[in-house]
Amino acid sequence: MKTICTTLVLLFGTVTISFAQKGYDDIVKQFASKPQAEHVQVSSFALKLARVFVPREEAEFMKGIQSVNVLSLDECDHEVKEAFRKEALTLSENGLELLAEVTDNQDHVRIFADIHNNKIRNFILVSVGEDPCLIQIKGFIDLAYMDKLVSDNTKNLK
């Protein structure tokens, strides 16, 4: 009897904790329906069509992307922005690696990635500054190509 009670208590605790942890998909669903919120989801089919119109080198990068989600709250009321900031800062990282965290005046940006076998499966950028937004890129992006892309686009910043 004790074993059954203990098992039920542990099971209940596990289920409660798993429901309490919000993910990035959950925050997109929660805030996409708010007035003035802009939510764009680009599917793999649309990305395949877009590859036709970009240079070859960028098309190679896009080949690994399965979907892109963009949630922008810059036109929303102050209350919605504050609620997003609160939720975004308390999100659990659930297997994601924090790549960068930048705070500059009113802006606060966090960049996360789920990296396995030198491939980025999930790339998330969360900005909780003046114009809050969340960008999520899912796919299998080669880490070496991502490094090259970053270095090519930051040459002039040094």
Can you characterise this structure?
It is globular, with a radius of gyration of 19 Å. A hairpin with a 2-residue loop joins strand 4 (107-116) and strand 5 (119-127). Mean pLDDT is 81; it is low at 2-21. Strands 1-2-6-5-4-3 form a six-stranded antiparallel sheet, sandwiched between helices. It contains six helices and six strands. It has one domain (20-157). Helices cover 42% and strands 32% of the residues. The chain is an alpha+beta fold and 158 residues long. It has helices spanning 2-20, 24-32, 44-51, 56-63, 78-89, 143-153; strands at residues 38-42, 65-72, 97-104, 107-116, 119-127, 133-142.
Main beta-sheet strand count, sense and barrel state = 6 strands, antiparallel
Number of helices: 6
Main structural class:
alpha+beta
Tell the overall outline: globular
> How large, in whole angstroms, is the Cα Rg?
19 Å
> Percentage of helical residues?
40-55%
Defining traits:
single chain, 158 residues, alpha+beta, 6 strands, globular, disordered N terminus
How are the SSEs placed, and which strands pair?
Elements: H1 2-20, H2 24-32, E1 38-42, H3 44-51, H4 56-63, E2 65-72, H5 78-89, E3 97-104, E4 107-116, E5 119-127, E6 133-142, H6 143-153
Antiparallel strand pairs: 1-2, 2-6, 3-4, 4-5, 5-6
Helix pairs in contact: 3-4
